[in-house]
Amino acid sequence: MVGNAGGTRLKTAQPDFDIDLKHGKAAEDLLAHLLFTPGALEVKRQDRAAEFGTLFIETACDKGKRGDYQPSGLSVTRAEYWVIFVKGLAFWIPVVWLRNKQPSCRLAECRDGNCPTKGWRLPLLWLIRGQ
Length: 131
Known about the structure:
Elements: E1 2-3, E2 9-10, H1 17-36, E3 41-45, H2 49-52, E4 54-61, E5 70-71, E6 81-86, E7 89-94, H3 95-101, E8 106-110, E9 117-123, H4 124-129
Parallel strand pairs: 3-6
Antiparallel strand pairs: 1-2, 4-5, 4-9, 6-7, 8-9
């Protein structure tokens, strides 16, 4: 125990090395699995997400701009995690978690480029707050 200027006594840190080690090892094992298992990760980059405050999660695309949208992105991925880079930050997001969030998000379309897409917007704050 240590004292402070106010006269109250504060507890010293009681590190739980055995518990911390177990959690750290589990995280290391998960990272090794994701990095060395083909197809476990799908990597995206959305630098403009910082401007909008949301990530665009694709679920359908119209290859060739024919008005014929087919399932794509989150609808067809077999990856366990999506890693989305935003301005140098990497968000490692379980695909199961993303799929569970979809009903709560706003639908969106992206018509830029040769392949229009449909999907939805995931607020970045949900990732930061762990909602």
